[in-house]
Amino acid sequence: MLVAAASAALLAGCGGTTRSGRALFAQDCDACHTISGADSPSHQGGDLLRLRLPRPVLLQFMREMPVHPRPDDAQLQRIADYILGAQRRAR
User: Has domain 19-90 been given CATH number 1.10.760?
Assistant: First the structure.
């Protein structure tokens, strides 16, 4: 019971639950980008499935995107994991 209370306090201090890269992409990226392998005229940022960037470059581009509130570094890492994983599966 003490462990559960400590875990709840820790999560509350970190903003609650940890969202998956997929959920974060849906929240922060999919207004402008797709990850389906097909460009869409309604997503002016283009499709990211065929984009091949090294992780550090992808993260730098992600930090420059006009998203508010800006995802923190841990969230950006999870989004990058999601994008890179989808790219690996598409090969």
Answer: yes
Domain boundaries along the sequence of the chain: 19-90
Tokens of 1: 């019971």
Question: Which whole-number Å values give the CA distances from 65 to 3, 16, 60, 88, in the listed order?
Answer: 38, 24, 9, 23
Helix (H) or strand (E) holding 89: helix 73-90
Q: Helix 21-28 vs helix 73-90: angle between axes, to the nearest 10 degrees?
A: 100
Global pTM exceeds 0.70: yes
**Mean pLDDT throughout 40-68?**
94
